[in-house]
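User: Here's a chain of 209 residues. Predict its fold as tokens.
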Amino acid sequence: DHLGIVLVLSVSIIIHYAFYLYSKIEFENVLFKNLLDATEDLIKYGDLKDKSDHLLLNLKEIIPYTVAALYFFDINNDEVVFPISYYAPEDIDIGELDLNVKSGRTFKNVKDGKIYISKDIKSDKNVNILGKLTKYTDAAILIPITIEEQVRGLIYLGGNKGLFDFVSKNVNDALSILSRHIALALLNYDYMSHIKRQADTDALTGLNN
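Assistant: Prediction complete.
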């Protein structure tokens, strides 16, 4: 009888664990697919601002954020930057979203190109979230955008319980894909802008055609 009970319990544990693994894999697969769909248009040439706005709206359907901001910058020359695109409640304006890429405490977490996740902004001494943002941010995701081993941009996502639950799952690999797709979009934009400048400039005089 005892052996039978042990066997039943063992089978039950195995089944529950199998369901857990299946749910985990299913969540990751759906997340990968949704992020790939959301970033599909990024790689096509077009207005970078418009595509950035569209991306943040698409991400809202996938990641339960309250505040999102997308930054592009030159880490060697810029000091404080503002997002090219952002999504936030009405009482948050762009002035609340400045980012110090020269000496800011928050940016230091991603300077090496690794994703940084904070599950408790208020007790996390590595980030410096201030002002009205604290009202909407219990957890945060900082996703660096890296080109040729140099950080050229950042996605900031902040939120409350929904985002906390999201980051409690295995999401780093999917977020890395998001980062790489935005990096490709920026690289493509740089390349196409360079081609356009060459086409608009006389090779001999350096003047506009």
